[in-house]
């Protein structure tokens, strides 16, 4: 039994949960400012919960997370109660089928080419030691933002969006995520009327409102195009429709109202770009400190692509090639805690009980380092995921709340990483000891400072 410390800085949160688990064991009851929470860090229990989740026992999100999701996105998939969530997920899932993702491959590759061109100014030709250092995440974010928005709103709207608008949205989203993560550990700011009367609360609200107004602008734009009978500049292949088109179809059928369209669209953009960009940044950091693995991937790309390797003039990464890559399945789990709420009493194997209605935090950061399932748990060993799936590995969460966009996320990561490696050799000036991540619902690297040299073919 422990207590949640007020003032835990978000940077320290994961360290604090580790401390609690070391002191009190794999299942810890914690008083969270008057409410009981349970921290779960046992792999076997997480596997058991995975099964229970399928049966709906921990199907709901924790209360704090729902408030957080509503403040960021408005009402959308993440914040819906179980019964409505299941209904909405049914219209989300088919959007991410193979055919749709194949249709957006050219857009993804275009962003891959754009980002390597933007980095050209940092690239040395001979000695990497004389190259300029740059921080990778802002470049990764801009690439994944463009991909996600193109998929969400259609290409036409993206072509009208200025750099300033895109950067302002990214900045606002970051402000809201950081401020609301901090708010969770300041119980005196719990009530909305108190929080939104503080200067930070007002800034957070303004940022969230600006995010929603971008969604409204996109909706208006798309509606006008539909009224004119235009296909809206989609990278049309077959019957591909952007996500917003599907939402507007559902509004016309009376399934969704206007506020729900704004909410779902916001969830799509917010859930899509930041996650993929963080994975790309973390993967590139690890590849920069593991040149052997970097070379393995490059060798495979060279073998598969032949003369198309590193070519800027076409889109060489076809669906078949992406599916069959051996060395690019580099998923770095970035969500350290899965927040859930028990929807029925859960009896644990040792006889203990998690009662209904309790917030349960599944500490994946610890579970993913359990030596029982992960040999050399702290080593970068992507090959550990190439065989039989590890039952306690849950980078895309578990059960009904599992990530809808996982295929799109993984394909985005593979394509951007492939482009970054085809053009450059990567090193980092980060040290293993100095490399820090910050908890903002995701485990976000503070910086990934890199140096690059042009790859000679
Ligand atoms: C490699 C990239 C990605 C990773 C690692 C990732 C990871 C996750 C995780 C761990 C969750 C569950 C969070 C929880 O249970 O609390 C989640 C949920 C979600 N993700 Fe992703 N994600 C990625 C890409 C995407 C993309 C590209 C999209 C959409 C464009 C997306 C949309 C969503 C949505 C809508 C949910 C909520 C699902 C629900 O509540 O049922 N994600 N993601």
From TrEMBL:
<dbReference type="InterPro" id="IPR002401">
    <property type="entry name" value="Cyt_P450_E_grp-I"/>
</dbReference>
<keyword id="KW-0408">Iron</keyword>
<keyword id="KW-0349">Heme</keyword>
<dbReference type="InterPro" id="IPR001128">
    <property type="entry name" value="Cyt_P450"/>
</dbReference>
<dbReference type="GO" id="GO:0016705">
    <property type="term" value="F:oxidoreductase activity, acting on paired donors, with incorporation or reduction of molecular oxygen"/>
</dbReference>
<dbReference type="GO" id="GO:0005506">
    <property type="term" value="F:iron ion binding"/>
</dbReference>
<keyword id="KW-0560">Oxidoreductase</keyword>
<dbReference type="InterPro" id="IPR017972">
    <property type="entry name" value="Cyt_P450_CS"/>
</dbReference>
<comment type="similarity">
    <text>Belongs to the cytochrome P450 family.</text>
</comment>
<protein>
    <submittedName>
        <fullName>Cytochrome P450 4V2</fullName>
    </submittedName>
</protein>
<keyword id="KW-0479">Metal-binding</keyword>
<feature type="binding site" description="axial binding residue">
    <location>
        <position position="403"/>
    </location>
    <ligand>
        <name>heme</name>
    </ligand>
</feature>
<dbReference type="Pfam" id="PF00067">
    <property type="entry name" value="p450"/>
</dbReference>
<dbReference type="GO" id="GO:0004497">
    <property type="term" value="F:monooxygenase activity"/>
</dbReference>
<dbReference type="GO" id="GO:0020037">
    <property type="term" value="F:heme binding"/>
</dbReference>
<dbReference type="InterPro" id="IPR050196">
    <property type="entry name" value="Cytochrome_P450_Monoox"/>
</dbReference>
<keyword id="KW-0503">Monooxygenase</keyword>
<dbReference type="InterPro" id="IPR036396">
    <property type="entry name" value="Cyt_P450_sf"/>
</dbReference>
